[in-house]
Target: Fibronectin type III domain protein
Amino acid sequence: MKMFKYIIGSGAFMLLASIIGTACTDGNDWDVDSAHDRLFSVTASKISISAQPTSAEISWGTVPDAEYYVIEYSTDSLYDEIEIGGTQHSVVLGKDKSIVETPYVITGLQGETKYFLRMKSMSSVKADSKWTYLEKYSFKTSAEQILNEVASITGESAVLSWTEGAEVTSLKLAEAKDDVEEVDTTYIELDAAAVAASSYILTGLTPKTKYSVSIYNGDVKRGTRTFTTTESYPAGYDIVNVSDADMLNDIFANPANYIQDNGGNVVLVFANGSTTDYMGESMELTIPADFKSVIFWGESGDTKPVFMPKGLSMAGSHDLIRFYNLDLQNTSSANDYIVNFNVEGTVGEILIDNCNISKTRGVVRVQSDGAKGSIGSINIDNCVLTDIGSYGVLQTKVSGFTLNSVSLSNSTVNTLSAGGVLVTQQNNVHISIDACTFYNCVATGKSFIDINKMSNVTVDVKNTIIGQLYSYTAESTIKATSVKGIATTTNLFTTTDCPYNSGYEWGEILSVSSTELFVNPAEGDFHIQSASQSSVAGAGDPRWNE
Model:
């Protein structure tokens, strides 16, 4: 019996020891299938991408025990069933174990292109993680811009250039219209010569037309620019490119060298970005009688070419003297003129259009003992005039000289210290002002238009705003015209800081000052404040209504 109990007890003890021994084995010490010893995946919410036109910076949260990372991107969709590198456009990065830290920059991308992306963490001792995809699955690069600003724009042509060595195949040219996506689209295949030169000349364009041009590499757009052609060079004119003041001297000293087959009609082209400074010359610049018509032409571009004429005169008979798309200036409002007619001559028309005029004593002056003859018309259109001195926009005070008409339109005059904007001592002159904005003009006690008691002078002013008079104080007043009753006005408005002498008013007097009417007149911003727009609708220089 004792033996039986002993046997039972021994067996129970051995069984218990076996159970205890098993229970003391660490569950984590079990043999593990290496196929399931996998790295954690990159957390999708921690992936961020900053995309540029041809690159993208990727940042992510690092994974414990990861030795490196593999990134795959493609313009095709990516998902788990697709093997690594399995799409037509897949690019796999990091298989060489080079991506070991965040962030990482992908280069060689295409602008305005949608890319799908996935990534995984990798190790030499553990299985690689599962793929992690972007939360929004894809990202898009921003627009690329390899086109430089369009240059050498004329009425019919323009020069394109782009980043040297860039891969390009074609151009797309179309009129740029807000309400129509494509109008008369032209596709241009670039030949080897154009690609090598990184340049192409567009021809056959329409004058005064806005265009959009895009450059492509295959189907990928690599840049877009808009530009507007100038008006076309007039037919029947010789074209001469002016390099500097010395050349201009030579043109007027030796006109026969520059007159070709157009009877003395010449367009003098000033290059975009150039400055032709005549201020240091000892003599005034005079257009010789050999030239029938002269156009001083500023090539279009980012800024208007600067021409400092000192005081251009003209001898003999001329049909047209024109300044177009130029920054006309001298050194200060105390010195010199743009045109100083001081010899004997006749001119059919003096035209200044699409110009900036500044830092000059006067714009057009005919006031010298030597000034004889006539000017048919003086027309200033689409110009901005700033810091004009004591001779104003026009001063013709000489006997025995004929002037038929003066027109100032679609222009802004900002700061003019003269006794009048327009001053004439000629009979039988018609003066017209249309769609203009004036600010800080005309000295107190003087007249906006002074006709010096001449006879048969008519004045027509419409769609115009007149702001503060020059150096306004509470006691300041001016006259609208030096002689009562000569002006006809339509849609003419004057602010409270340009008070008129009693009986010499014109148009409508507003209830606001210049600072209340204009956005920032002291800084040259003459847009109309919203509260006053209805009261002056349709008036002023149109550039401030845009």
Observations:
- Helices lie at 2-23, 192-197, 245-253, 514-517.
- The CA atoms of residues 144 and 222 lie 5 Å apart.
- The chain has four helices and 39 strands.
